[in-house]
């Protein structure tokens, strides 16, 4: 089978499309014929060799955690899923023609494989950080870097829970944020005052790692009410860094419920073939994403 992998840490140029042995579903696992794989910032952080405790890496390594596809192997002890089912979930080395998943759910009706591949890690992260930051219905949550996959999910999850949201993003994404129910403003010079004009803030999320933790703490008034998923230096500011996933099966079930109720939709901004995984990483690292980027197989 074809698989994207890397033999050394480094930039996007270390990614190679190689021939590899097919993986197989062990106990408690399923294998899918991959139709699409999600592109997440953690993918290129791992490729660069960043020390992420939740994702130890041995070289050579495959790439990718999220995928959607068709079940073609069911491991021992697994029930509730059959060969031929369309599922989305999380596993390892998902930029490949076949991948083993450790957590999965049936794809909601009407969802394409490309769309489904963009949800697993994104929704788990969004649910986790909303919980960890402790924002309650009726309060206001500030989201820095709100137009990407996690931000798109946070805005919609917050709206579903009765939480008021202020989102920052580039000028081109202001209408997109408003369409997701957020009060929108641009980042850049003067952004703190622009946020203040939109009202007081009870909690804040840093999703972009753009060096704004001091300002977020200033706006909220308490570093314990700020959570970052993108700035590894967050603890130095008294801010919690959230990098360890919670229950992925629970997150997938929540995603399926929200999607089925029409309360969650994350658009796919761009899809790339396996051979262009490096380009997908370049674009992901550049930021300014509206929704999700995925690999199609």
UniProtKB/TrEMBL annotation:
UniProt-annotated location(s): Cytoplasm
SUPFAM superfamilies given in the database record: GroES-like, NAD(P)-binding Rossmann-fold domains
SMART domains, per database record: PKS_ER
Main location: cytoplasm
Pfam families xrefs: ADH_N, ADH_zinc_N_2
Annotated keywords: Cytoplasm, NADP, RNA-binding
Entry-linked InterPro entries: ADH-like_N, ER, GroES-like_sf, NAD(P)-bd_dom_sf, Quin_OxRdtase/zeta-crystal_CS, Zinc-ADH_QOR/CCCR
Domain Enoyl reductase (ER), residue spans: 10-295
Quaternary organization: Homotetramer.
The protein, known as: NADP-dependent oxidoreductase
Organism from which the protein derives: Streptomyces graminearus
